[in-house]
Design brief:
One of its GO terms (biological process) is arginyl-tRNA aminoacylation. This protein folds into five domains: about 5-85, Arginyl tRNA synthetase N-terminal domain (Gyrase A, domain 2, 2-Layer Sandwich); about 110-155 and about 255-365, Rossmann fold, CATH 3.40.50; about 160-250, no CATH class; about 390-450, no CATH class; about 455-565, Orthogonal Bundle (Isoleucyl-tRNA Synthetase, Domain 1). Helices cover about 55% and strands about 10% of the residues. The chain has helices spanning about 5-20, 40-45, 50-60, 85-95, 130-145, 160-175, 175-185, 185-200, 200-215, 220-245, 265-270, 310-325, 340-355, 390-405, 410-430, 445, 455-470, 485-495, 500-510, 510-530, 540-565, and strands at about 25-30, 35, 70-75, 80-85, 110-115, 150-155, 275-280, 280-285, 300-305, 330-335, 360-365, 370, 440.
């Protein structure tokens, strides 16, 4: 049950009557009531009337009694909305028998392609890949749970001129030694050695260029060596995804090479449509509205002056294939904010070419950077990018040490399980709990704290509830009547009813921090309830009611955290 939507739908006709046209009632949670409508304040200037008068007029037309809602004008023109206790109790009781906790499956399922993670072959994943992978995984989980057909695409960097250099270095090492080095996961060392050789040796440079020609021409041996690089890199990527506990698999890899044969057709079609123009020897498209610092039109270079293709051509070919072959109606690109203009131009060109048209829509889910304590881009002590595996392993070690220090009686297996769930959960939640367009500072102490807006705080709240339910000795009765003897019980009930509305909003916006924020509010409301409302020692009716509220809270926390890709624990 999405209460905000229900109240908005009830107030909308009344606002329309007063305004003479559609008006958004702007319903939200309120500190002074259960909800409030701010629509009258927004309408005041348009109608030239005091907002309190507008609010009072709206209430003369609003029909709210049948759903147990009382309303009053407050302050400068707010409409405060309060549910009757019985109506609120009945709504919460309705969640008990609903496996989806009031969140319906979508009535209009879409085919959604989510492009995320995207590491480069022969390079180790670094901290810069964390946000794309975690945000993309959460988006996939949420949209899948809502009933959409979701296609995961891990767009690997596995093609282009650097591979001539890498393959030639592989040849110099010998296939057996190279395979052993790569299988150990030390991809950066392999890449740096190839780069150093390329920069210092002209003969190696020439061999590398010829190797690129052979690769692009389909030379059998060169393709086999290239495949060795790709295969070993993919194995490494999968170990990282397993540690990070995300759903990407080998079936989701789709490298740039997969679109190589489609690129000439992209160029030909853009040319046929009159969109392709020569510029500096390259073939370009100039989408309207994009200019450089000098004010001149900004080109999207589709084919370079040497006849090769760059990222724009590959991205156009991929978009076209995802719409045409996969039947995508929503395209999500989880890529850092520095690529914002690139994707805006790609989408504009695709629209001009007719490959991207309603109802299909493409969205760039841009994100900010992870910063160190100094407020700068997170780097290792040597000034290099922090390896993602190292970051994740450190999180697990820190969380495991904390678990052991707080509970010395834990056996090794239990401590390790808690350490992994809490450590990885802390990393993910620190990322997902902030607006993805913002930078954030990696702060171990804050991330692993058992208080505040952190994963451990939510995981501990869940574990605490599970402990209460175990000690109760019996499951909460799903048909138990909900009783409000304390304000904290009522506050918890209102929070429980907010889950559906938040999930629906996140489905549209993919602002995952809204879901994280909701879960934190729910856990905070439960902790206040737990402190003020004894559960196991309460009288029979009150005990059953409080057990049911606790169980509903646990179910909601577990489901919400699962949508974010974070594990819950029965004990902590």
């Amino acid at each position: 049950m999405d209460l905000e939507k229900l109240l908005s739908d009830r107030l909308a006709p009344a606002f329309a009557t007063v305004a003479g046209g559609p008006v958004d009632p702007l319903v939200r949670r309120s500190p002074r009531a259960d909800f409030q409508s701010d629509g009258a304040l927004a309408l005041a200037r348009r109608l030239g009337r005091p907002p309190r008068d507008i609010a009072a007029a709206v209430l003369t037309h609003a029909v709210l009694d049948d759903i147990g809602v009382s309303a009053e004008v407050s302050g400068p023109g707010f409409v405060n909305l309060t549910l009757a206790d019985r109506a609120l109790a009945d709504l919460v009781a309705g969640l008990a028998g609903d496996a989806r906790l009031g969140v319906p499956s979508t009535a209009t399922p879409q085919t959604v392609v989510v492009d995320y993670s995207g590491p480069n072959v022969a390079k180790e994943m670094h901290v810069g890949h964390l946000r794309s992978t975690v945000i993309g995984d959460a988006a996939v989980r949420l949209l899948t749970w809502l009933g959409h057909r979701v296609v995961r695409v891990n767009h690997l960097g596995d093609w282009g001129t650097p591979f001539g250099m890498l393959i030639e270095h592989l040849v110099d090492l010998g296939e057996a030694e190279a395979a052993q080095n790569l299988s150990m996961g030390d991809l950066d060392t392999f890449y740096r050695a190839a780069r150093a050789k390329f920069d210092a040796d002209e003969a190696f440079q020439e061999r590398s260029r010829l190797r690129v020609v052979a690769l692009q021409g389909g030379d059998e041996r060169t393709r086999r060596l290239w495949r060795l690089l790709v295969t070993q890199s993919e194995r490494y990527f999968l170990t990282v995804y397993d540690l990070l506990d995300v759903g990407l698999s080998a079936d989701d890899f789709r490298g740039e090479s997969a679109y190589n044969d489609l690129l000439p057709r992209v160029v030909d079609d853009l040319d046929r449509l009159g969109l392709l123009l020569p510029s500096g020897g390259a073939d370009c498209v100039f989408p309207p509205g994009f200019t450089g610092r000098d004010g001149e039109p900004l080109p999207l270079i589709v084919r370079k002056s040497d006849g090769g293709y760059g990222y724009p051509a590959t991205d156009l070919a991929a978009l076209r294939q995802r719409v045409g072959e996969l039947g995508a109606t929503r395209l999500l690109y989880v890529v850092g904010l520095p690529q914002r203009q690139h994707f805006a131009m790609v989408f504009a060109v695709a629209e001009a070419a007719g490959w991207l048209r309603p109802p299909v829509r493409a969205e760039h889910l841009g994100f900010g950077s992870i910063l160190g304590a100094d407020g700068r881009m997170l780097r290792s002590r040597a000034g290099e990018s922090v390896k993602l595996v190292g970051l994740l392993e450190e999180a697990v070690v820190r969380a495991t040490d904390l678990a052991r220090s707080r509970n010395p009686e834990l056996d090794a297996a239990a401590a390790d399980a808690i350490g992994r769930a809490v450590g990885i959960g802390a990393i993910k939640y620190a990322d997902l709990s902030v607006d993805r367009t913002k930078d954030y500072v990696l702060d171990w102490e804050r991330m692993l704290a058992l208080d505040g807006n952190t994963a451990p705080y939510l995981q501990y709240a869940y574990a605490r509830i599970r402990s209460v339910l175990r000690r109760a000795g019996t499951a909460a009765r799903p048909d138990a009547p909900i009783v409000f003897a304390q304000p904290a019980e009522r506050a918890l009930a209102v929070e429980l009813l907010g889950f559906a509305g938040v999930v629906g909003e996140v489905e549209r916006s993919l602002e995952l921090h809204q879901l994280a924020g909701y879960l934190h509010r729910l856990a905070t409301a439960f902790n206040a309830f737990y402190e003020r409302c004894p559960v196991l020692s309460a009288s029979d009716e009150l005990r059953e009611s409080r057990l049911l509220l606790a169980e509903l809270t646990a179910r909601t926390l577990r489901q919400g955290l699962d949508l974010l890709g974070i594990r819950t624990l029965e004990r902590m």
